[in-house]
Amino acid sequence: MFSPEESALFPHIFPETLYLIKNEFASKKKQTGAQDDVLEAKPPKTKAAPTQPELKGGNKKKVLILIGDDSLSNPALKELLMKILGAVGLTEEDIALAVLEKTLIPQDYFHASKCHKAVLFGINPSYAGFQSDLYMVSSGNNISAVFSDPLSKVSTDVNVKKKLWQGLKNLFGV
C-alpha cells in the first residue's frame, strides 16, 4: 500500500503506533465512474446506551436512592450511605439503588422503581423536574424527594450532614 520510504515517515508524523483493523473500511467505487477504489470509513460500533435503568436492592418500600456520580465505587462512601439508610430505618431490601447513567434522566429511574420517596445525591433538583432547595422535602408526580450534595461532600462536611439529616427526618417522619 505504501512504499518503504513512505512508511518510514509515519513515526515522525504519528508518534503513536497505528493499526489497521480489518473490516473497519469498505471498498467502494468512485461515483465518477473511474475504476479506482476509494476507502470509506464505516461508522464505529458503539455499545448501545441503556434504555432501562439498572436498579439494585429489593425496593420493598418503594424508596429510590439515586447517585449522580461514582461514589458507590468508594467503599467508605458506600458504607456511609448504608449508615444513613440505617438511621432512617431502611435496608438494601427496602430501597432501589442506582447510579445515574449519562444517557438516562432521573424520571426514568422514578418510573422504573415505582418509588413514592426518593433521595438523590449530587443531582440538581431542576434536572429531575423539581423546584426545590437542597435538603428540603419537595413533591411532584406522586413522589416526595430530598436532594443532597454528593456523598463525598456529605462525608467531609458536618454542616452538610446536619442538613441532610434534617431533610431525611422530614421525608421519612423519623
Q: Strand fraction band?
A: 15-25%
Our Rg estimate from Cα atoms comes to: 25 Å
Seen as an oligomer or otherwise, the chain set is single chain
Strand order of the largest sheet: 4-3-5-7-6
Helix content: 25-40%
Poorly predicted runs: 24-30
H-E order: HEEEHEHEEEHH
The main β sheet shows up as: 5 strands, mixed
Helix/strand class: alpha/beta
The 3D shape can be described as elongated
The counted number of beta strands is 7
Number of helices: 5
Average of the residue pLDDT scores: 83
What's the N-to-C terminus distance?
73 Å
List the helices and strands and how they pair.
Elements lengths: L3 H10 L11 E5 L7 E5 L21 E5 L7 H13 L7 E5 L6 H8 L3 E5 L16 E3 L2 E6 L2 H6 L1 H15 L2
Parallel strand pairs: 3-4, 3-5, 5-7
Antiparallel strand pairs: 1-2, 6-7
